[in-house]
Amino acid sequence: MSIRQKIVALHASLPQGVRLVAVSKFHPAEAIKEAYDAGQRIFGESRVQELVVKHEALPKDIEWQMIGHLQTNKVRQIVPFIALVQSVDSVRLIECINREAERIGRVVDILLEIHVAQEDSKTGWRYDELETFLQGEGFKSLKNVRVRGIMGMATNTDDEAVIRADFERLAGHYNALKPRFDESFDTLSMGMSDDYNVAIECGSTMVRIGSSIFGERY
């Protein structure tokens, strides 16, 4: 199947209310344009330099999302145009995004990345640390970020029971946090090419799919 056919098939198969992020990192602009021409508008990147180049080269109605670990010294480069930063995993990063957004008069949408996987190498807040931060005055003072929801990754394993348990934990955290925010808190981003169907069963509203669309990364 072509990229166009895969995009069309994915859109047809996803339940209503579940948005597709086409993970285009490491793939060329031509492949992204093929997905764009098939109707895809949301693309996810993990490296700032690559994201900036693609933003300049491709149609301006694309919603670019940052899904990889974001260093504070790179924030200024993407704040003017980024639609959503999914990978907000520390106080330092959220304060940096807020500061850079305030500097240019923007409010930037973000997701709070929560760590539930069994690998320590994966980034994200521990839930108790996030709770403490959200209850503090420091968070309440941030006027140039808007928390749209949470993001997380399941353990890298073939054991579906482990994956499902991770997603259920993320969904539980999402539901616990939701009453603290207004109606714009509407995004539970979990699920990738190998596990997005399980994620959707557990309540995901946004899936991040790359290799199933573009093939393996080069």
Question: Helix- and strand-based class?
Answer: alpha/beta
Task: Please give the radius of gyration in angstroms.
Answer: 17 Å
**Major sheet summary line:** 8 strands, parallel
How far is it from the N-terminal to the C-terminal residue, by CA?
19 Å
Average pLDDT reading:
96
3D shape: globular
Q: Number of folding domains? A: 1
Looking at the overall shape, the CATH architecture is Alpha-Beta Barrel
Read across the widest sheet, the strand sequence of neighbours is 7-6-5-4-3-2-1-8
Beta-strand percent range: 15-25%
The CATH H-level superfamily is Alanine racemase
CATH class: Alpha Beta
Give a verbal description of the structure.
- There is one protein chain.
- The chain has 218 residues and is α/β, with parallel strands linked by helices.
- The chain is built from ten helices and eight strands.
- The relative contact order is 0.15.
- The mean pLDDT is 96.
- The chain has helices spanning 3-13, 29-37, 48-57, 75-78, 91-104, 127-135, 137-140, 160-177, 196-201, 211-214; strands at 19-23, 42-45, 63-66, 84-88, 108-113, 145-151, 187-189, 206-209.
- α3 (48-57) links the parallel β2 (42-45) and β3.
Compact description:
The protein has 218 residues and is an alpha/beta fold. It has 10 helices and 8 strands.
Question: What's the arrangement of secondary structure elements?
Answer:
Layout: H1 3-13, E1 19-23, H2 29-37, E2 42-45, H3 48-57, E3 63-66, H4 75-78, E4 84-88, H5 91-104, E5 108-113, H6 127-135, H7 137-140, E6 145-151, H8 160-177, E7 187-189, H9 196-201, E8 206-209, H10 211-214
Parallel strand pairs: 1-2, 1-8, 2-3, 3-4, 4-5, 5-6, 6-7
